[in-house]
Amino acid sequence: MPKPATVLRRRRVELPAERPDQGVDRVEPAGGGEGAPYDIRAEIGRIHPKAAPVEGEAVVVKQVPNAFLDTDLAGRVDAAGNKDVVIAGFMTHMCVAFTAQGAFLRGNRPTVVADACATRPLRTAVAEVSAEQVHHSALATIEDLYGVVVPSAASLS
């Protein structure tokens, strides 16, 4: 399971270097309920300064895990003439998976870069599920129908 710093480096440096002509749109949550993992007002949901948008980077603010729903992301992708969409980020089981599904349902071809994604452990009513298990389960779901999962940015070429 990659560490968040590794995910950030791959997202900022390796992915754009592999596909410099494609442009990079950044998607951020608008927030969740107070104390939720997506509450951008709390430390747990706040974007870390090292992951903050860089100057000139387009930012799409979303309200739900699917970054295509009720945002202008679809218009940006279409305006760039892209059918292929490369997805990286966190959380793998939530925003990455739902955005891959959203891309697929609108006719795009999503590719998820596995080592440029991360998630957290979850608890169900019957078990504790490790972050690694959650991560791989989400990737398996994506790969089963919605898109392609590649191990690393180097696999994109």
UniProtKB/TrEMBL annotation:
SUPFAM superfamilies: Isochorismatase-like hydrolases. Pfam families: Isochorismatase. Residues 46-146 form the Isochorismatase-like domain. Keywords: Hydrolase. GO terms for molecular function: hydrolase activity. Residues 1-35 are annotated as: Disordered. The lineage of its organism: Bacteria, Bacillati, Actinomycetota, Actinomycetes, Kitasatosporales. Gene3D superfamilies: Isochorismatase-like (3.40.50.850). This is Isochorismatase family protein.
